[in-house]
Amino acid sequence: MKISDASRISGVSARSLRHYEDEGLIVPGRFSNGFRDYCQSTIDRVLVIRSLLESGLPVRLIRDVLPRLADGPDVGTDAVCAEFLHEVQSYRDRLAARIAVLSDQQAALDAYLREARRTALR
């Protein structure tokens, strides 16, 4: 199917499909005129990619794990190796640490604003 059909069926923009290809996440076939040709297995892979991206995983990690995932849009832990789960946990831990730092910064700014408002009202 053409890129417009693949976009409609997958719910992913044509631009994103081209980006996935540029990143080496998918490899669509080609028609004789050079246009991309998307088969159902590529669409299934796009759905997995979209799900992983929406989870916040970086493209690098997705590119590394895609060969180890089962085909299809349902990604179960039984289809994923322990190394990938470790990578996801590590990524999640780094994200949690960043959130903690941002929360501390937000609290400091809130305290500053409270004090500044109290001083301005005097």
Automatic annotation (TrEMBL):
The keyword DNA-binding applies. Residues 1-68 form the HTH merR-type domain. PROSITE patterns: HTH_MERR_1, HTH_MERR_2. It comes from the Bacteria. GO terms for molecular function: DNA binding; DNA-binding transcription factor activity. Gene3D superfamilies: 1.10.1660.10. Pfam families: MerR_1 (PF13411). SMART domains: HTH_MERR. This is MerR family transcriptional regulator.
